[in-house]
From TrEMBL:
Domain Luciferase-like residue range list: 17-257
Coiled coil: none
Pfam families in the record: Bac_luciferase
SUPFAM superfamilies per record: Bacterial luciferase-like (SSF51679)
PANTHER family in alphabetical order: BLL6902 PROTEIN, LUCIFERASE-LIKE MONOOXYGENASE
Protein name as catalogued: LLM class flavin-dependent oxidoreductase
């Protein structure tokens, strides 16, 4: 059995055929797709966060709205770039969204990927400390977030407060118990996966990983997951870890599906230089009739180890199309793989 979620980047554009033409469109349709996905048996609604782009950027109002409109589906991010974040304010927002949803928030965070602008985090008021890299800054922000999510008091109360305080040091509010165990780290390579395990975060592995061996994408991702689980077992975090992988899985059952995704049936892994010092391997897309998808996905070694699979959706095709795509995966692909 596996949890099945969708991952929505929230693109909008005025390109011909786009059903998502404005920022309002992508926000409203993201809520509608989450509601529809819950109805067809999808387990999670996850959203990518990109700044300075015509994509989803501020996740917590969206997650809170989805939490208020749904009752079972997990809501989450995949991922928030911690270089841009005030961890204190983020903890308050995350606590509120989690409480509104009844404890369904799964918060994916990471050091971040290349963005639309140079050093975009500086426009948000952040800069690495002396001797820090931007990756170090992201991890520092993460450390603060993880600590305050424990709900322990740390702030000295005012002796003459506007409202009475409980005794002792004060924590951030609202605090949502259990959220600390639902933080995920988006790791690109084996060492960052080990670091995430040591910190007590779940592992979120995307459709690309650092090309560390030249092996096929799913093999390198499987080795990343194995390293993560090996490191996790060295620590006593008090809960069982979760691991997700993202995949582009497009069942072809209509002529419209074939028009959009038929060419992806012969997709292969690709290698690219996404940063000066980071060569990455991008996983292939899976496209075909449901029986063919079952056969292909059975050979994906990383999927076998993960407990959660996130399906990247072509959100610009609209809610109705994507809800049908997700239902086809749940009804016609997942049972053949033992996911249902």
């Amino acid at each position: 059995m596996k949890r099945i979620g969708f991952l929505n980047f929230g693109h909008w554009s005025e390109a011909p055929g786009s059903q998502v033409r404005t920022a309002q469109d992508t926000l409203v349709q993201s809520i509608e797709l989450a509601v529809a996905a819950e109805e067809v048996g999808i387990d999670g609604a996850y959203f990518r966060v990109h700044h300075f782009a015509r994509q989803l950027a501020s996740p917590f109002p969206l997650l809170a709205a989805i939490g208020a409109r749904t009752s079972k589906i997990e809501i989450g991010t995949g991922v928030i770039d911690m270089r841009y974040e005030n961890p204190m304010y983020m903890a308050e927002d995350a606590g509120a969204a989690d409480l509104i949803s009844g404890g369904r928030l799964q918060l994916g965070i990471s050091r971040g990927s290349p963005e639309q602008v140079i050093d975009g985090w500086k426009y948000f008021g952040y800069a690495p400390a002396e001797g820090e890299s931007e990756a170090d800054m992201a991890r520092r922000h993460t450390g603060v977030l993880l600590e305050v999510l424990k709900g322990k008091g740390f702030a000295q109360p005012n002796p003459r407060p506007m409202f009475p305080n409980p005794p002792g040091l004060l924590p951030l509010e609202p605090h949502s118990p259990g959220l600390r165990q639902r933080i995920w780290w988006g790791a690109a390579g084996i060492e960052t996966a080990r670091w995430a395990a040591a910190q007590g975060m779940n592992l979120m592995s995307s459709t690309l990983v650092a090309d560390e061996s030249g092996e096929p994408f799913h093999v390198q991702q499987r080795k990343q997951i194995e390293a993560y689980l090996e490191e996790w077992n060295k620590h006593d975090h008090g809960f069982a870890p979760r691991v997700s992988v993202s995949r582009s899985i497009m069942p072809i059952t209509t002529d419209t599906d074939r028009m959009f995704f038929g060419r992806d049936a012969n997709s292969r892994d690709q290698v690219g230089q996404i940063e000066a010092d980071l060569r990455a391997v991008f996983g292939r897309s899976y496209a075909g009739e449901p029986d063919a998808l079952v056969e292909q996905l059975q050979d994906d070694e990383a999927i076998q180890l993960a407990d959660t699979v996130l399906l990247t959706v072509p959100n610009q095709l609209g809610v109705e199309y994507n809800a049908r795509l997700l239902k086809t995966v749940v009804d016609d692909v997942a049972p053949g793989l033992g996911w249902r």
